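re: that chain from earlier
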Amino acid sequence: MTTGDINTLPAKNRLPYIILITSVAAFGGFLFGYDTAVIAGAIGYLQIKFNLSPLMVGWAASSAIWGCVLGAMSAGYLSDRYGRKAVLIGTAVLFALPAYGSAVVNDLTSFIIMRLLGGIGVGAASMLCPMYISEIAPSRLRGRLVTLYQLAIVLGINIIYVINLKISQAGDEAWNIEYGWRYMLGSEVIPAVVFFILLFFVPESPRWLAAQGKDEAAKKILEKINGKAVAQEIFIEVSESLRDEKGRLSDLVDKKLRKPLLIGVVLALFSQITGINAVIYYAPEIFKSIGFGAESAFTQTIIIGVVNMLFTLVAIWLIDRAGRRSLLIWGVAGMIICLFATGICFHFHFDKGPWVLIFILGYIASFAVSLGPIPWVLMSEIFPTKIRGIAMSLATLVLWIGVVAITQLTPYFLGTFGGATTFWIFMVNAVIIWIFTIKKIPETKNRTLEEIERSWS
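^ sequence. v structure.
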């Protein structure tokens, strides 16, 4: 089918092309989830292989996250300079090569370097993939298409949980200590190469092309996505918005922007320091520490992933019905209850039966409908157009710092304070963000971006 043929098709007949290109971008989210969760299966064997202390276990697990900080910091500038597509191709390379490198190393220093490099790709993708989708998608489909990215993250986590289980079953503990973790980490090469190839078949962002003065190329892509009838109107709107989006870092201290910036940064931080990555990354080790066998621990981690997936779908269904604020209030309340109950189980040694798993699953479900998706939605809504990119970069940077802190400190907390105190620390953080939500966060459901922007004045 020629470009001209696509341009004249009704909107519903262009939908497969739109879904195709946004699905390719969302595949970066799949690798995001895959890369960050793969360490959950490998870390126990790495600890024995390299004789790691609790703090060094945290360093080995969080090294990729430090790379994510660097990637998130640099992705905005690089994508503005070289284009969204070009930098996405670079992230695919940074997924593939370090995955192979981390699987073949024989010393901890080399392993850390490989994971840092891979983390740069993850951090860059965490900003670029949803940005690309939002810039390429028709306005009527943007919300649903951007959610493909979040679903892809959860799917990537679930897939690597299953792969980790299958690899761990391929040999005994000695085999896993020497080889199993290598196969777990190296398995990422395959989807990373697929992502790299697919990216050559998607267009550049028309918004970036327009910003570079490549108007005709931008119009052609807009026509393929929206049809000739509306492409010119959209192009004019894009051109006008680009003239308005001349934000500077100094704009962040503007008095009327302090509240949305505070909301964005606090949500980003507390979405992480309420403990989600302690469960995602260390679930097998937590379950093994309370008496479950290695295979059983991996199986229960898969159950966690399935619950995460199902309740992410629930969040997508409810977010435009119940509203962002309501989901946050009820979801975080559920997190508080489940974190408190998990701590009780550890404190009174009820951790040999099903109760720990039940309360952790309740925590995961509550997170998946609240602090999982909603911070990303609100961060894309509350900032004025001209500083949205800068402000989201800052909030994303804070988010990754929160990931680093929890990933690094969780093994130390568990080893020093025990499971009860560790989960109660997460509970206290959840109480703080629950109160903050009630006091500070407005409802943005069914409000235009301009209405939200005017509300801060």
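The radius of gyration is 22 Å.
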